[in-house]
Design goal:
Strand order of the largest sheet: 1-2-3-4-5-6
CATH class: Alpha Beta
Number of strands: 14
Protein name: MBL fold metallo-hydrolase
Helix content: 10-25%
Cofactor: Zn(2+)
Pfam family, one: Lactamase_B
Domain Metallo-beta-lactamase: 13-195
InterPro entries: MBL_Glyoxalase_II, Metallo-B-lactamas, RibonucZ/Hydroxyglut_hydro
Radius of gyration: 16 Å
Oligomer: single chain
Length: 217
């Protein structure tokens, strides 16, 4: 059984996810923790539940999703996985982080590259890498087929989609990929987004104003 826990960090109100199997083998996804108290909250949860963090994954590499990468790599001695097309996005954070007030930002280099269709093994569980660019050039989603749940990053939100006006964004591509990669998942699939509350594929197919049956954009 896969357990999913969320934490909301940094001024962007980013959702960081900690997932683990029944034995406590865990992966940290999009660590947005920057302030000491945010890191302390995450560490306290890991220690309380005796989790063993073995992987560090980024859905994509915008600043709000990578603030804690370097710290997490050191803290738990884990490799960082990103899609190769996110390399320029990750590197650019070092340049613009001070403009957002993150003067202490420390960059982290990836150790492995994620690939479309790749199966990631986390203890007794497996997740599939879905390639859903558009919000950023190498955005991926992690899908757990047995429980019909996915960590969606900034692709699909409840009643909205990821913004596409940032460098490397592509609006038409994002709409296309949501339909071909996410809307082909079972309707009951729960999406855990990078911001805001959870949603389901069924709800978004019907109600999403960008890609649903009632689309107005």
């Amino acid at each position: 059984m896969l357990s999913i826990h969320s934490f909301t960090f940094n001024p962007f109100q980013e959702n960081t996810y900690l997932i683990h199997d029944e034995d406590g083998v865990a992966a940290l996804i999009d660590p947005g923790c920057h302030e000491p108290e945010e890191k302390e909250e995450l560490v306290a949860f890991v220690e309380k539940h005796q989790l063993k963090i073995e992987q560090l994954w980024n859905t994509h590499c915008h600043i709000d999703h990578v603030l804690g990468n370097a710290w997490a790599k050191r803290k738990w001695g884990v490799p960082l996985w990103i899609h190769e097309k996110e390399m320029p996005v990750l590197k650019s954070v070092e340049v613009y982080a001070p403009n957002y007030g993150f003067h202490g930002y420390e960059g982290a280099s990836p150790d492995e590259f994620l690939e479309e269709g790749q199966i990631l093994t986390l203890g007794k569980e497996q997740l599939k890498v879905l390639f859903v660019p558009g919000h950023s050039p190498g955005h991926v989603v992690f899908y757990h087929e047995p429980s019909k749940r996915c960590i969606g990053g900034d692709t699909l939100f409840r009643g909205s989609i990821g913004r596409t006006d940032l460098p490397g964004g592509n609006h038409s591509l994002l709409l296309s990929k949501i339909k071909s990669e996410l809307f082909t998942l079972p309707s009951e699939t729960v999406v855990f987004p990078g911001h805001g509350p959870e949603t389901t594929i069924q709800f978004e197919k019907i109600n999403n104003p960008f890609v649903g049956e009632k689309a107005i954009y």
